[in-house]
Amino acid sequence: MESALSAGIELVAGLPTIRVDFRVRYAECDAFGYLHHAKYWEYFEQTRTELLRACGIRYRELEAQGVYFVVYKCACRYRRPVVYDDLVTVTARVLRTTHTRVDHAYEVHRADELTCQASTTLACVDRNGHPQAMPAALWTHDR
Amino acid sequence: MESALSAGIELVAGLPTIRVDFRVRYAECDAFGYLHHAKYWEYFEQTRTELLRACGIRYRELEAQGVYFVVYKCACRYRRPVVYDDLVTVTARVLRTTHTRVDHAYEVHRADELTCQASTTLACVDRNGHPQAMPAALWTHDR
Amino acid sequence: MESALSAGIELVAGLPTIRVDFRVRYAECDAFGYLHHAKYWEYFEQTRTELLRACGIRYRELEAQGVYFVVYKCACRYRRPVVYDDLVTVTARVLRTTHTRVDHAYEVHRADELTCQASTTLACVDRNGHPQAMPAALWTHDR
Amino acid sequence: MESALSAGIELVAGLPTIRVDFRVRYAECDAFGYLHHAKYWEYFEQTRTELLRACGIRYRELEAQGVYFVVYKCACRYRRPVVYDDLVTVTARVLRTTHTRVDHAYEVHRADELTCQASTTLACVDRNGHPQAMPAALWTHDR
Q1: CB–CB of B31 and A36 under 8 A?
Q2: Are the beta carbons of D26 and B49 separated by less than 8 Å?
Q3: Which residues contact A66 (CB under 8 A, 6 or more apart)?
Q4: What is the CA radius of gyration of chain D?
Q5: Which residues of chain A have pLDDT under 70?
Q6: Most buried by CB count within 10 Å: which residue of A4, A33, A138, C65?
Q7: What is the mean pLDDT of residues C6-17?
Q8: Which residue from B minimizes the CA distance to A35?
Q9: D27–C38: do the CB atoms touch at under 8 Å?
Q10: pLDDT at site C45
Q11: What DSSP character marks residue C136?
Q12: Mean of the pLDDT values across residues B92-112?
């Protein structure tokens, strides 16, 4: 952590970074007792919502203005299982921003243990799903 | 079963009735190994989609025309657990239709065993969530 | 609120009561934009986990001791829609406890607005799903 | 398609391949109306269940014998959106099998349109999550 921008956001190596805690819910675990691998994406998505909020931007209002982000690609490596009632911390960083795309990297920790690493590329689209340039306030927020 | 209206729909005691099979998915089961109680509502919802389809109505097209249904109330009794990879049959019947509401009753069977009974009341609303009368074709289809 | 038992729990009319906040996630909303009606049960379940925790009991440890709770029946009335990024408060109260069952009542508020009311009956079962008496510490905690 | 092994399975370039249809459920779509990106993993998982079934293996019985598979890594590229009530076909192929891991590749088509491509690596573990060699019947089934 180099400096705090606001209550929730920091710059790590110059990039906006946030940490959000999640308590693993019973319904999120599968029959093996593990947090189901699909559910991580919901944690990452919610963490992006909080990252934007910490930057002063409410994603809901972006949508109301016709600015949408959809996941274009993603990848994940699950290193250690996480189970019901574990408290995990998701760290999300903006890796790269272009006029139409944003790359994020994620880490999940349970206390000091790294349990998962992931990445996504989001595309900015309009209400019809067509690519559009994102508002300047977004793609320059990590300068 | 008194008579078959189409491939999928029957009249049971004069009411449109449909049966839809579901294979219980791994991700739908919770850490105890049971189909999670919340997931049944997704099965019931999907069964309503198929009930409408069997009546010649595609719910997606209703929405495109500004006709939406939202669940107003629901109740469920879980009699026997259902687990991963079980094949269950959901039976849905229209119990009652008014100009603005539809009541459905549901049963879940695994082979001959009744595992669950439920009911819902749906309200017809517009795009803003305000109540509206449903198209006549819907509230009279069980005459 | 009559008295506080601990940081999170209160007695309302002599009954243990808890309030838990949930930020509605994007993935929890359906194509109409509403928090999907099935997802409320996950909020209620998580709230029960927190109610137990506030009583000094970790449900995960109960399970490790062979004490499980399954939802036997439930009912819900959805009064007002809730949408993505709304902050809602779920209030859960223990209504009644017998040696084998627990009844809870739930309310969902968005600020001062009551949006949903629900109830569940849980049954205490063993690892094989057979009914069993719950530990005395549980069924007497509301005396 | 080179040859059919059974009702559901084929060999494509010498690799066991299966196609499974999914009707996109309302609850699986997010507030933007798209099949939520996290839900694809549930489709892929269910398709693996069917791939095993077509090979004469029921994953539920593998688990009963102490053989579990967990997702170790995954990647996905979402090419075109899929919406409520679309009928999509998931094609899953076994790409590679070692004594402890299986790689699958997936494609999602809506009619002739390729909408999504993905891959996973599963690790074979025991009940405690420790790596174990999978039964010979599994890692040799694609010879």
Answers
A1: no
A2: yes
A3: A126, A127
A4: 15
A5: 1-15, 139-143
A6: A138
A7: 65
A8: B31
A9: yes
A10: 98
A11: H
A12: 95
pLDDT confidence of residue C135:
87
Residue B125 CB-density burial (10 A; 0-12 exposed, 13-18 middle, 19+ buried) = buried
Q: Tokens 């939520």 — which residue?
A: D36
For Cα atoms D61, D66, D70, give the angle at the middle one, nearest 5 degrees.
90
Q: What is the DSSP letter of B32?
A: T
Separation of alpha carbons B125 and D104, rounded Å: 44
Question: In terms of CA atoms, which chain D residue is nearest residue B58?
Answer: D85
Question: In B, which residues are within 8 Å of C72 by CB distance?
Answer: 77-78
ipTM given for this complex: 0.89
Q: Give the helix ranges, DSSP H, for B55-113.
A: 59-64
**Chains within contact range of chain C (3+ C-beta pairs < 8 Å):** A, B, D
Q: Which domains does chain C have, with CATH numbers?
A: 3-139 (3.10.129.10)
Q: pLDDT tens, A8-36?
A: 666 666 668 999 999 999 999 998 999 99
Q: Do A77 and A118 touch, CB atoms closer than 8 A? A: yes
CA distance, residue A87 to nearest chain D CA (Å): 19
Distance CA B114, CA B117 (A): 8
| CA-based nearest residue to C110, from C15, C44, C24, C49 | C24
Cα–Cα distance for residue pair A29/A27, rounded to 1 Å: 5
Q: Which residue in this structure is represented by tokens 């097209």?
A: B61
3-class secondary-structure state, position C49:
helix
Alpha carbons within 13 angstroms on the beta-carbon side of residue C23 total 16
Name residue A64's amino acid.
Answer: A
Gap between the Cα atoms of C6 and C55, Å rounded: 8
Q: Do B27 and A38 touch (CB under 8 A)?
A: yes
Identify whether the C-beta of residue B142 lies closer than 8 Å to the C-beta of residue B122. Answer: no
| Cβ-contact C74, C45 below 8 angstroms | no
- What is the DSSP track for C57-89? --HHHHHHTT-EEEEEEEEEEE-S--BTT-EEE
3-state secondary structure of C3: strand
Between chain B and chain C, how many beta carbons pairs sit less than 8 Å apart? 59
What average pLDDT does range D73-85 have in this prediction?
Answer: 97
| Residue from C118, C81, C38 nearest B123 by CA | C81
Residues near A128 by beta carbon (within 8 Å), at least 6 away in sequence: none
Can you tell me the distance from the alpha carbon of C128 to that of B91, in angstroms, rounded to the nearest whole number?
A: 27
Structure tokens at C13: 């009319």
Query: Which tokens hold the place of B91?
Result: 């039976």
With the C-alpha atoms ordered C29, C115, B94, A27, is the resulting torsion angle positive or negative? Answer: positive
pLDDT greater than 70 at residue D5: no
Q: Do residues A29 and A88 make contact, with C-beta atoms less than 8 angstroms apart?
A: no
Count of residues making up chain A: 143
Rounded distance between C-alpha atoms, residue A27 and residue D64, angstroms? 22
Nearest to B30 by CA among C73, C91, A34: A34
Q: pLDDT tens-digit profile of C90-139?
A: 999 999 999 999 999 999 999 999 999 999 999 999 999 999 999 887 76
A31·B26 Cβ contact <8 A? yes
pLDDT > 90? residue C12: no
